[in-house]
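Hey, can you fold this one?
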Amino acid sequence: MRSRKSSPRPEQASLPWHPPGLVAGVDEAGRGPLAGPVVAAAVILDDLRPIAGLADSKALTAARRERLYDEIRAKALCCSIAEASVEEIDQLNILQATMLAMRRAVMGLRLKPAMVLVDGNRIPVLDMPAEAIVRGDALVPAISAASILAKVHRDRWCEQVHEQFPQYGFAGHKGYGTPLHMAALREHGACIHHRRSFAPVAERLLA
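Sure. Predicted structure:
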């Protein structure tokens, strides 16, 4: 394994040890919610087709994320979106499931990157050099792009599940443990998409 973890600063996206070649940015969405898969995306941007307005997906409006999602898919050299399921989250734990989704996203890229930059302070097991960058989604354009793809993909999943289980309000809270969601859990119990290993859901199942 050639992955590397560090405590980076903003300029570390261009550290001298980085190998020449394609660079992929990786980020996830959905670690905190009580339901649904955790989603990861990997993006290799095209320097000849810049995308204006890339930023941490949480700092963008939903409408802006949707527009950028389409532009990233159209202009990036390649991109990949992957998931770890609720069953995998409950079996492995959310951290390991997140690492699994990230690995799947990188392995799903049509082009193999020479370097992988991952948002946060942990990296999945990969067969190419990798670096964790704290707040990378706000510092590295490729990670910003990955954060947008992952966030939009998971939000769309929530909207689809809302149609199947409207009593939980997934389209609004996106699976997070809001007062509305907790009230729905108390009234209706857990559905097939809830993470049984998460305490609020487990407590409801034992009630």
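DSSP finds eight helices and five strands in the chain. Let me know if you want another pass with a different chain boundary.
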